[in-house]
Structure of Proline dehydrogenase:
Amino acid sequence: MALGFNRLLLRQFEKKSLNTLAAPVVAAAAQPSSLNLLIEKQQFGDTVGDIKSKTTKKTLDFDDGGKLFRSVTTGKLLRSMVNQQMASYEPIVDIGIWVMRSRLVDTRIIRELIMSVVKHTFYDHFCAGENLDEARRTLQKLWDGGLKGIMDYGLEDATDNASCDRNFKEFVKTIETTKLLPPSSVSYACVKITAICPISLLKRVSDLLRWEHKDPSFHLPWKVDTLPMLSDSSPLYHTLNRPDPLTPAEEHDLHQAHQRLLKLSEKCLELNLPLLVDAEYSSVQPAIDYLTYSTMIRINRNNTPIVYGTIQAYFKDAKERLIQATEAAEKMGIVLGLKLVRGAYLSSESQLANSLGFASPIHGSIQETHACYDECASIMLEKASKGTGAVVLATHNIESGKAAAARAEGLGLEKSNEKVQFAQLKGMADGLSFALKNAGFQVSKYLPYGPVEMVIPYLLRRAEENKGLLSASTMDRKLMSNEIKRRLKAVVMRHKAEENMPPTNH
Ligand SMILES: Cc1cc2nc3c(=O)[nH]c(=O)nc-3n(C[C@H](O)[C@H](O)[C@H](O)COP(=O)(O)OP(=O)(O)OC[C@H]3O[C@@H](n4cnc5c(N)ncnc54)[C@H](O)[C@@H]3O)c2cc1C
């Protein structure tokens, strides 16, 4: 029903006819109610008004909605706003998440019905298409609007070598396809290590690395040169007992996984296309960092950052790990590439720690996470200015975007410097993406693609992230609704002006 309503609104609007149905909805959404202002204050510290008035020398401009959303049609703006509005409505999202995780989806007809609803709402909003062709078309539209894309085939975690090999081939296909796209329209390729190394092995390797950190005399015969993955403040509760050494079969599988990552990195080096390695849950992250950093040491030579790891700033040990990695990379003379995110597995991390009777590894408050993100960003921007580091600032947070942009300018970083880029997920923070792009920075949208069922775990994470009145999308919806209201007003004024024009005699 919501979908039909959505379409009806769009059709009416795209014809540019003011209609009685759209007006009250748009007007209500655009109304700067005291509740909206309060929400903005609580989440961001600044309201849109504050952002306008406080900034004297602005690096990012959010004031001029016409300029901000210049390349976005009114229909697309309205569709994005309605989708984000639905995604922020907690009861809808909670029911949706419950249904997706329930046995109901085992029944074929119900499953098909649910998939169809998901496809026409959340999927269309957050994903780039069901296959490479559709994703290419989405990327082309972005590129026309001045943004780059990060293509990501939404693969499942792998359980055995056969699924790792299948996934590896898909990653190669995605990387190769960038040759067919407009030059520079793709900023990065990306890979999930959990798709090219069996999860159980990543857990075993992480256990062994943690034990080695606890007891440096613990010998790991298979370990090659890498950067530090754990710090003294890293949680070790996942590994309470001394783990058994890897069996020859496990060592063989680890070598295979390493080779897959190495081959993908070499392919990227050949195409001069940087490769982002995603971060996952803390139970497997040490092994992911081990594989990433050891590959980085081999590939990121000659001042060229090709392999990028990911740091999740919501972890209490994030900054310490980042500093250790930057120092070790500098000593080795390699450019450390890092993508900086806040982290997407908040509730599962806290639940796991609680279930084992340990404190959560996540910062105690969101303000601490914000501060950690901004400090890590500042460190990496400084490294980028010296040429020893490269950073992808992957965030939807307007304050972090503003702080990083101002710091980059303060450090005198050229906006065309490839070592500093910003990124947001498709369907999120378009206002921030366009403000950064208008200021001259290089900005990408992360474009997950693949069959609907395959990207369900990704969509569930986006649903969790966007739900609630204080969700990340609140400011974005506000910017969009202000712009829709401005365009509506312009149409009304034009209609009025036309009505008042004296009739012309022929
Ligand atoms: C290009 C790109 C790549 C990404 N890659 C990864 C990846 O590899 N791995 C990964 O895990 N995530 C990844 N993400 C997802 C990212 O972690 C989430 O989108 C992120 O949580 C949203 O934060 P934000 O920076 O947009 O900030 P905001 O919009 O301010 O969001 C704040 C979020 O922080 C959470 N939060 C963090 N710490 C706390 C705390 N202490 N208390 C309460 N809430 C807290 C809240 O749930 C809230 O959703 C990626 C995102 C992008 C844009």
